[in-house]
Amino acid sequence: MTQTDVDPGTLANVQFRQVGKPLTRTDAPGKVTGRTPYAGDYVMPNMLHMRVVRADIASARLARLDVSKARALAGVACVLTADEVTDRTAATDIPGQTGQKRLDTDQPILVKDRVRYFGEPLALIAAETRDIADHAAELIEFELEPIPGVYDPLEALKPGAPLVYGEDNIVAERKIRKGDVEAGFARADLVVGNTYKTPFQEHAFLEPEVGLAWVDENDVVNIRVSTQVIEHFRPIADAIGVPHNKVRVRGALVGGGFGGKEDLTVEVYLALLAKQTGRPVRLEYSREDSFVGHGKRHPFILTYRTGVTKDGKITALDVQMIADAGAYVFLSPYVVLYALVAAPGPYRVDNLNVFAQAVATNNMYTSAFRGFGALQACTAYEQQMDEIANTLGIDRLELRRRNFLKTGEPMSTGFVPPSAIWTEQCAEKAWAGLGEPSPEKGPIRTGRGLACYQQSYGRLTFLHDTSEAWVGVEMDGTVVVRSGVTDIGAGQISALGQIAVEVLGVTLDNVVIYNSDSAVTPLAGTTTATRALYMTGNAAKQAAEGLRARLAERAAQEFGAAPDEIDMAFNEVFVIDRPEQRMPLVELVRTCAAEGIHRSELAIFRAPFSDFLDPETGQGQAHPDYAYGAHAVEVSVDVETGEVEVLKSIAAHDVGQCINPAAVEGQIQGGAQNGQGYALSEEMLYEEGRLVTPSFSEYLMPTAMDMPNVECIILESRSGVGPFGAKGIGEPAMTAVAPAIANAVADAIGVRVFEMPITPERVVTALQQRDAS
Amino acid sequence: MPETRTITLRINGREEEGRFPAQRTLLEALRHLGHMEVKCGCEKGDCGACAVLLDGMAVDSCLTLAWMAAGKEVTTVSGLGDLDSPHPLQTAFADGGAAQCGYCIPGIIIAAKAIIDAHPEPSEDDIRLGLSGNLCRCTGYTKIFEAIADAAGEMRAEGGAP
Amino acid sequence: MYAPFELDIPTDLDGALAALANGGGKTVLPIAGGTNLIVDIRAKRERPDRMVGLGEVDELLGMDFGPERIAIGGRTTVSDLLRSPEIAQAAPSLIDAARLFGGLMVRNTGTVAGNIASGSPAADLVPPLLVLDAELTLASASATRTLALDDYYLGYKQDARRPDELITRISWPRLPENSANTFYKLARRKGDAITVTGVAVTLSVTDGSCTRARIALASVAPIVRRVKEAEAVLEGEALTPALIDEAATAAADACTPIDDIRASAGYRRHTVQALTRRLVTQAWDRLA
User: Rounded to two decimals, what is the model's pTM?
Assistant: First the structure.
């Protein structure tokens, strides 16, 4: 069940014909009938099949690598080792991430001598069949001499700890120094201090990494790949040593991303072997490959010390955050920056110190994952709010209400978000949505939890993000949209269609959207950072509006009216006040074509550009804008076995403006699943860096039997910086779920489990410790 | 030398033939024959993306060897309906927003078909239990449950769809 | 999947047993549902030279509901159990286990004999069958024998089945009047999960006294096993909370769990105690 709340003040003057309706997504019919080809469904004549051979120790020296038997196997076309790609590395530390590029942090494409994490690639095989490639992999011999590694970020910070690379294990440090924290603590009636731990998380998209590459007649390496970022063609070209215009990345509809297909995955391996063999090559990761083949969510250790007055007003906050960056840099410096900015949450904190570190270890490298550091911060600050409320004896919602950041107020970085801040409305609706409490019986206790969040949408403003889109109208009145955006399942391209047809007054079945081809579709940027709708939606809207203006001008001439008197709807063009003056859009288009009037428009949308945050104070603008909302849950806990069941899961988000409400709900419900697994059941276990949970029978995301029906309460402030006032919902949907569950468990059993996932065993242990003390 | 045998499979009502070694899974065989609508998610029966009907019974094609399907009727999601004439389940999934990235959907619709065949008026428990071998990472399942219930209703109203 | 092997597809039981008997020093494995075996072959935990497909051996199918005993063929699938109202009536614990067994597709092809023969300490159908006093029929080309399931497991992944034998039938006596028979699966999630602690209980009560007690545990020892130490505490007694506690403690003391990725030994022991107490108490309260 879903409720929708619209701000009546803004409803009056807006009437949409396509936007805001739960239309059947343009990509849906192909997906439900099996017609949609994913990247792994493409094959080519004469194609070779690839395998990656990986290290099975996390920290080691490669003493011997013998591929001669594999090379000699009939049907093996090529085996590549570091010897053949000696100086080739893939940059993992982009200048600007860590302030300056750190030494020795690039990842060799293939291990030359030093293995830094379990699963690091040693060799690439291309063979006539998958069976032969698998057989060849068994024939590759290697010896790894273990080197003492470091697997805990706290250990990695100690003097004398084994170095993962460079001169120390500190990958990045960020801080906020705002107001007078000492004075704030002095004014406090109470200081509440706690440490919260968050775990690794696997994206667990259902489609493992996969791609197909070939070299075309122009010597361009073409890569058809499952990716969130087609603009990786540049680093791919750099890695294999060709000009940027000699690599073309063609996406496909992506079988799930969540940040896990944001970094390079199979692209460089494919490009190398396509070049090397001159034949098409295909590489599909097995699930086990996928578990070790892309970065994970950063585990964080977050220590919060909050000063509050007796009546619950926060006077000071000091936060220390340590993130496990794993064995290579990747996006860690950005992730801790997000965590830093998000540290106080959606609350007004004028006296604030935050210190956030990313630390290298020999664990799997960590990188982007839905929520991107801000989620880990929320996990801590929302548990901390409950701890404060319980200590003070103030109602948990009321404590939050006394501290919520309000519209027009400055956030942690001193920046004033340009949009409405409706945290309070969302929190009240989600909390009320829980309804009557469920009964307790025998060893079953029930509890409720609430969590509110602030999550950015749009990339960091110092990155100067842009997005291009092209909209054209055909001679028969049908519409074509071209955008480089990748669709990772949230309905990114269908939303562009809905926006374009809203502006052009046609229906959604009259639009085709071409997307994600780095050589053909206008470059639209990444599908990451909850930026796709905001950036590409604005670009498509801008392009459609440019086209509409030209068409309207010609129609106005036809009708003897002013251009602003013209409207376009349901494939017709008419004068607003004289609707009898009308013509089919197709007629107008033909007229324009006959007169050589341009029937398409290429637009570029630019996010706000800013400088980097002040390095000493952390003050300035970090993001274009922020989304706000709340998640509430009710759980039952079996106090004998520690089993937790989520009985109710209710989300309330201000999404600004829905483009497609069904897609918005889908994001929210999927976020609820992602967050529930993170809180309760999903656990990546490493032993000395070796992953011991590399499958879906060991890494447990919630099944259909574990998920409650997730209720969505959608608020529309129409205040966002996206198209038609939209905000973003991709990441925000997940951010507050896990802390809401943690708070509900603590409410049920009267004791908190400070480390996620909240496994049955941790619940039992917490109860035993409470009983013992 | 591993044994290779010619296996005739009846796929979505059409006979197709291939030479496969004994260890070839039905998933590999189907994709080799061009049935790319059958998806590979884990190759060990944990995710259900590769589910097909074998004589009407839902199986993981990754845990079925190709020879085990010889002489049986294999139905993939594309055998239930197509763009011009979709199955009520396909319509309900598309219109209800139950497909997001869509990669799990071919397997989920197959499991859903099996659920409705066994329980024309499925309870929530029937649906949840029937889907417990199909993982979805995008939807949280809510819209999938709704789509299955809607399609079952539609099929009852139609007096039993194919 | 690169794992070359030869294949026999016999059309009857004699053919299957002959194929298993003629291994000639090679590794010959029978395969029915394949839901464990194919995973193991892909992971190189099993490397068969030849497989014997049982899909056409119809002697392994069927269920027989006699007045004294219930017998099912080795190829009976988990879904077959769930579809049978007779099983639901005669072996409720088996239904408890079958419902939560894998996902739908695995239930449709995974067989009872395969679950037993996997030798997994987490095999979910085994604790219910143990508390039902199940007996196995093992057939080879040269002989057929019966063996109590309780005597079947010898150690971790070690069982009494010779490589040339098949589990052709599983049978158990009907429960006496006034019996309770339940199974609880504790796992890290509700759907399709490997068991952390599994407890099955059968209690029969006559004239206010527990005449028979069976308690079997999964995932807390190298094998699925009965805890006769705990059963002995209950049999012949009118149960009291103190007595049930004593039995639960005996069960916890008797199990020999290990730490693994799913839980620690200590937690498993704790839950054996809690669940044994709970299941026995519920059964007693219902019957007495």
Answer: 0.97
